[in-house]
Amino acid sequence: MKAIGLLLISSLLFTTHNANGNPIQGYDQVVLGGKEALQRLSNVQSELSATEYLSDAKKAILKGKHNMQKWFHDGKEFIKQNGLLYELVSIPPFKEHQLRVTEPNLCDAFVKQYSGYLDVAEDKHLFFWFFESRSSPKDAPLVLWLNGGPGCSSSTGLLFELGPCNIANDGKNTTHNPYSWNTHANIIFLDQPVDVGFSYADDGTTVNTSPVAGKDVYAFLELFLNRFPEYSKQPFHIAAESYGGTYAPNFANVIHQENKKLGLAPVPQLKHINLASVILANGLTDPYIQMASLPDYVCEGPYPVYDDPQGPECQALRSKIPTCQRLIKSCYQYDSRFTCVPALLYCNNMFGSLMQLGLNPYDVRRKCDRSKDGDLCYEQLLWIETWMNDPKNKAALGVNPDQTFASCNMDVNRAFAMQGDGMRNSARLLPELVNDGIRLLVYAGNADMMCNYIGNERWVEQLDSKFHKEFSATKSVPWITAHSGKLAGEVRAAGGAGFTAGNVTFVNVFEAGHMVPFDQSEAALDLFTRWIMDTPLTLRKAT
Ligand SMILES: *[C@@H]1O[C@H](CO)[C@@H](O)[C@H](O)[C@H]1NC(C)=O
Ligand SMILES: *[C@@H]1O[C@H](CO)[C@@H](O)[C@H](O)[C@H]1NC(C)=O
């Protein structure tokens, strides 16, 4: 049906294409709307003059771009660009933004998918890929998944950790993931900010701070929910890994503040986003506390990197903590790059000798051979690049053939570093959210050295929310997975008196590195599902 749809559209609206059977090889895009829309399109007598209907912002987007055609049909706008077809979505409150949407059929053949771009004004373009839930999508919550870096693509989450398929076979193929998080949730994977993954900027625009990145993410969500209102009523969760521990509190804060403004002065077409929880996975959120935990983790953690906790390496590392914390304190106090960059340089430097040990810093149980495994120590991340750069996959996703995909963009990484963004206190944004009823889950695989679980548990314990006292007084209890009954970790939760998953919950995931769903796929799905359903992670009362 999809292939036929394409033929119809091509032959009717682009008369240079002749519907003789297969004039459209090279891409397999589909205009959204299914059979019905195609039927309606087949009745189109003449192509409308696209430019008549364009807002100034959209004219700007088209400025200087040839090889682009647009038309309007039945209240929807369509665009053909570089041989790829998209539906265009815009809403008046966002004059500078539009969504360009296509419908791929990769990775999970049995669910609805959308992918494409959020275009911001004429220069920023953020790539997204959405999968509907494998079960009752109309009731399933909506989740935004973000990887970190900064500068790394969310396709790591998609193809390596928790998406509907896993990268396989050197990147020639993918395999079905039975533990995908779209088992019970609708999920969006977003590459942000610009220049990450398939996202791009036309004229060298950069985004280099989390608060600024948050504005585009908010615009993206509003446009998405306006186009797909069927996902706007359910609870919404933002889940982010690694540097996402910095992004997500900022993004959640933007959403929450915008929700509040809308509560006071509703704007037609702007939707309240039902932000239900923030999920931080092996994140960097409160560097003052987390950086200081590094010696404790590498010298006395469950997988010690140095044999002797009192040995010279451990002493040298510990001796750096006071300076690191002093610098971060001044970063917290002045919140400017002049104080935050020095903190970042000094504190990151503590990892220097640890990176020379031949270990995988994301999973210290493993060795890392960078010549074989790549800089990020997982050969699968190289396979992802192969797969994403396959012209067939690009075309199916609505990605311009000229775009080159990299798992992580080090220029973006440096741009954030030069703002000292990663040393800011993102934890300070969370108490207001938690106190206003937005739940917080922080989990960490216990073999990760980069954002270790000890530091994560400590900052959650310090978090100055309504649940502070209760959390401090609460002990961890075993977390047993519901299906296989496996001891998968420990959970410490405050709020809900053991009848819910908690309002502030920390989970230490056993035998998992930085990317928990990769190492413990069944347990990770158990954790995620119980969290979004707000049922306890343990049957024992968490006090
Ligand atoms: C890719 O995997 C699918 C099933 O998972 C299989 O049918 C197909 O033959 C594989 N293709 C290649 C090129 O390995
Ligand atoms: C705690 O979470 C529940 C949902 O489980 C929510 O209804 C409640 O408002 C939250 N409590 C507070 C004090 O925010």
Describe this structure in words.
With 543 residues, this protein is an alpha+beta fold. The chain is built from 19 helices and 19 strands. The radius of gyration is 24 Å and the shape is globular. The site of one 2-acetamido-2-deoxy-beta-D-glucopyranose has 8 residues, from loops. InterPro entries: AB_hydrolase_fold, Peptidase_S10, Ser_caboxypep_ser_AS. Its EC number is 3.4.16.-.
Query: Helical element count?
Result: 19
Q: What's the overall geometry?
A: globular
User: Alpha-carbon distance between the termini?
Assistant: 56 Å
| Main beta-sheet strand count, sense and barrel state | 15 strands, mixed
| Helical/strand content category | alpha+beta
By DSSP, the count of extended strands is: 19
Q: If you average the pLDDT, what whole number results?
A: 87
Question: In oligomeric terms, what are we looking at?
Answer: single chain
The rounded Rg comes to 24 Å
Determine the strand fraction and express it as a percent band. Answer: 15-25%
Hetero compounds: 2-acetamido-2-deoxy-beta-D-glucopyranose
- Enumerate the spans where pLDDT stays under 50 for 5 or more consecutive residues: 1-52
Percent of residues in helical segments?
Answer: 25-40%
What's this entry about, in short?
This protein is an alpha+beta fold.
Which properties best describe this structure?
binds 2-acetamido-2-deoxy-beta-D-glucopyranose, disordered N terminus, alpha+beta, globular, 15-stranded mixed β-sheet, 19 helices, 19 strands, 543 residues
